């Protein structure tokens, strides 16, 4: 057993080094849903949600200066070369592209005129019979003169433009600013909202990792220390920055949540049974869970972070049961093996039911929920294995070698006695209480689910503060795209449709949507602010650099965008209304299709999916647990006896959530199923002891009394250990984890009380007909989980 534990430990140490963190907003949405597929398509063509960097001068400095423009162009170029970045847009690259393009056009124009003049001069020299040297001289002179005249003509046409260069203020002021010099030209506001603020937009690959996001953010922040930009501030923001910060909070909370959970369970174990040996067991269970998750490439998410403290509580729970049973056996020295043979089947059945119950979450289409179910099932298995492979040898060694420290029965008889006496209710009253409490499940569909990434962030999070600052200074918090797809979305009818819908959405959103960039705006900007016809459109798309056109139209002309900026940090409910508006625009031209895209669309899709999944996932958990119990008991009555108190506790907890007006999140949606899965153990343990006493010949009343005296204290101690594991999560800085831990602890407390209060009354009435088994020695009772004789 210890050798197998050593192998698991070695594998887990390897796996721990492979653990990664994941907090992408995509975790909240079904990868096969239309919203996700549309989002992925837009991400592949134009880049996914961007890291947005606000740039502003410190104090009363000026943003537009040669040093700043050179520095911004250098920074944007380096960001574009970072892994995970699809495209980068910003003022430095904008001016550099324009300067290069203006220079290229001028050189092409003047070069063509010069070549024509050179050819003409050569022909004239040939006709005059001049030598080859004279022909070359005449051609070169004509070329230089024609180029000089061309350059002078262009300069006369644009007298205020200056030399096209990044470090020429005359050039970039003329290009970027209105003639008054105080406002930015409308079609460049996506890069410079005003003369004192710039925005660098780094659009990511759809599969960009959190590590890559951190590199991008770090590179942007480090720019403030570079020569020529020390008087600038760089404020990274955007959806990826928020999710990266959330992942940091998740991982950093583990650093102190795990030690705190260990301290809590040590206190519980010492108070209940002087079982200090639970510490290495809990540590091993955590290591095995995390290590095997790493080997299986299961990332740490805001949901799975909740598993580790719970595994600590679960390890303590199983060990307390082993210690309690050891204390009941014969004289010290030989009782550990007998105790293990009696308690491991019942805790094994409980672990199997719990693991199968939480594994039911793996059928959810939402990755966050699915990963939680798999991770938690793995944690349950590792907690049980730690007790089997290491806990049993520890108790065996303590019992034989260190008898002064040998396990004693669990304390708590007084509290258990009170509940046992309260459990002498009549079956009718018990059923009435179960019926009333179960009505609380009706509140489940009515719970409001919050999936707004902002509301899922820790209070005071720096990324959240950066987002708020960008909103104050630029007036935008994110974007929502109106996407048009079709055979050729650059045709005039498609461009006109996109123009009208953009105007309609902007005016009809109550100020929540603001046009930022679009294909119509791009085309009009290069056509004297009027929409071009088909021929002019083709010419513009052919001549204007792809740097500009690629932001709003795909190279194959099958997809176009109208990017609408979100002006407020809105709720998901408000986002739903905006998404509905974008989805309900007028029908596009025949053969085309339109749809919304962006983080807000993903969040709304997640909200809908989570609300739909609440009832089915809870019902599926109940069904799976019932099937496991049915396979073990092979009779319906024990299954009902195990499940009814936990169902009542879950219903009461759901009603409390509604009464407290607590907002659910993607984790608290799992509460009902979690309570059923975990609290089932309490019923299994109590009912197992009750059936043993019946089989040994006790009357139902006597069997209930003995079960209450022998197993109820251990159940209370186990419940306290589990509650401690969940309650520690209530101290997490991540709101979703915090609320999940707090409400899980409350619900488990309700479940423990429900089992000890209601199960005895029902068991005495419903399970009374077992035939008396031959009386066996105290050290050889019927094992829980084995078939009992039928009455």
Could you characterize the architecture of this molecule?
α8 (239-273) runs antiparallel to α25 (712-729), α13 (413-422) packs across α26 and α22 runs antiparallel to α23 (671-695). Mean pLDDT is 83; it is low at 772-791. This protein is of the alpha+beta class and 791 residues long. It is 62% helix and 7% strand. It contains 26 helices and eight strands.
In short:
The chain is an alpha+beta fold. It is built from 26 helices and eight strands. 62% of the residues lie in helices and 7% in strands.
Distance between the termini: 39 Å
Largest sheet features: 4 strands, antiparallel
- Number of separate helices: 26
Which strand order do you get reading across the main beta sheet?
A: 2-3-1-4
Structural class determined from secondary elements: alpha+beta
> Which spans have pLDDT < 50 for at least 5 consecutive residues?
772-791
What is the average of the pLDDT values?
Answer: 83
Taken from the alpha-carbon principal axes, the silhouette is elongated
Number of strands: 8
List keywords for this structure.
791 residues, alpha+beta, four-stranded antiparallel beta sheet, 8 strands, disordered C terminus
List the helices and strands and how they pair.
Blueprint: H1 2-16, H2 34-46, E1 50-57, H3 66-80, E2 85-89, H4 91-127, H5 132-157, H6 169-176, E3 198-204, H7 210-222, E4 232-237, H8 239-273, H9 278-295, H10 307-328, H11 335-359, H12 367-401, H13 413-422, H14 427-438, H15 462-474, E5 478-485, H16 492-508, E6 513-518, H17 519-525, H18 534-543, H19 546-549, E7 559-566, H20 572-583, E8 593-597, H21 599-633, H22 636-659, H23 671-695, H24 700-710, H25 712-729, H26 735-766
